[in-house]
UniProtKB/TrEMBL annotation:
It comes from the Eukaryota. It holds the Pfam family Voltage_CLC. PANTHER family: CHLORIDE CHANNEL PROTEIN 2 (PTHR45720). This is Chloride channel protein.
Amino acid sequence: MRGNYDVWFRANSPEHYDKLLRGERPLVELTMRQLCVRSLRLCKQLPNSPITWLFLVLLGSMAAAYGLLVDNWVRTLFRFRRAIIESVGTDSFAGFLCWLCWCVTLAMLATCCGYFISPASDGSGIPVMRALFAGVYQNPGDMLSFRTLVAKSLSTVIASGSGLSVGRAGPFTHLMAMIGYLMNKMALFRRVNFGQENYNFIRAANFGAPLGGLLFSIEVTAKYYEIKCLWEGIICSSVCILVFNVITFIKRDVLFERTTFAGFDMDYEIFAFVLLGVVTGIGAGIFCRLAVVLRWAQMKLFTKLGLTGPSLKRRTVHIVTICVASTILTYPLGIMRLSDRSIVNEVFRDQNLSFPQWKQISEYPQVTLFVYIILKFLISLLPCGAPISVGVFGPLFTIGAAVGRLYGETLMRYWSPTQSPATYAVVGAACFAASATQTVSTAVIFFELTSQLSHMVPVMTACTMPDAKDPNVSLRVQHLVSKILDIDKKKSAMVEDYSLVDFQPKDATSLSSPLELGPPFHEYAFTSVPVETYPPQVSEDVNLYRVHKIAAMSAWTKVYVVRLSKLLGVVNLDSSLTMLRKEEDLIMLAP
């Protein structure tokens, strides 16, 4: 029995109090419910609790099932739209009007989900999760509530089926975070410690790459990451992709068609992959810069129309304009009406381009492929910053695959390389996505998708080339939505006007006399304050970014991690604070 106030109140004497503490209630007095509760608490106290494994398995299984369900809903919308267009005439003006009405109607329904159900469902999930982990939101329950889950799910499905060039990787990250957060509120998992970092690692089903999806999620969402959570993420993502593969095998469906490429031998062709990395890096940088220009033009338009604040009218104007522009660019060319998955599988296939739409403009498919890249580039820019659930990784991956295929076809025509154009398509997809997101884990996704470890050198070389160029050329795509949503990581709720970047001392002082605190007092160094404080202690659940920020303000060099007054470890902050003081560029959160 625990020593609390009730036990002390029942005791008649100190001896009786000790007897109550040492005494144990007979097992026969416990009901079945009490036995189950005690057994559950005992399981939760184990180092590697079975409850933790159950949570990870259930979360991974739900992620796979949820991803397949969303994908099937989007396919159903695509089939329904194709049936409507074919009934009125594929290349007729009536078909164009039907396509436009379909796009505007579904996009308006998607933005209404964010306006009427939950505004937190708008945008991509990656910057939201980065801001959540950084402590920008003081009430994470609003961002991870069931209401937001419903709105995000509906908006993701409807926006993806509307015909806009949007992805689902970012929104799916937010969806799985909400599912994990709500599962953690269940009585079975309530007292088990699941780090926040685990919630966003269940995106592997989007790529069919458990380890690559896990590493990609870490790169784009976590600035400070607890290594102890890595094994949980690997288990969860592995279960996710296992369930995903089992279901797709039963349904006889595939995510990406696998192709066997010729092995790569180190020769002069490595320079061709280096050049591909440079080309895709510049293209991704142009994409990010044009997204900034587009956002500036939209804000100018909204200001002229008097739509400076969030409103349904502003949402309507924004959505209708991008839908009309996307339809005008998409409908005339037949290849633009195909889904991203169809295009990716086509350019990844180690054979000639076989779709009849490739010869709509010219008898040379490369001409149509070039036009497709330009138009896809433009229509992928339009939804950036739109008030709907939108991701950008999928369109960027598709653009990179098309660029790589065109690059490979050009080399085959004028040079005859040993590698097929499909190899360059896969490498181009990885490089373009890696450059826009400034991640290297896309190379791991490539290895898991193709099982071509012999291409490790050219892929890694090409993926790292975008980082070797001038950083002013490109801007990380996750920074754009963070700037749009105004969720800079330095805007934590602790102190609004205290910069982590500039630690320059100020001459002003708020004290009437410096002797009030004893020796001369430096308001930023805190080295002369004659106060003996307790050792700084934090719980293991405290956000690591907040610990770093408080340590920067208080000049702590060590923080002790405790659980129930027991020391678990020590966090040394000297090197981290030194890096923060030397940091000169503004670090935005990730769309």
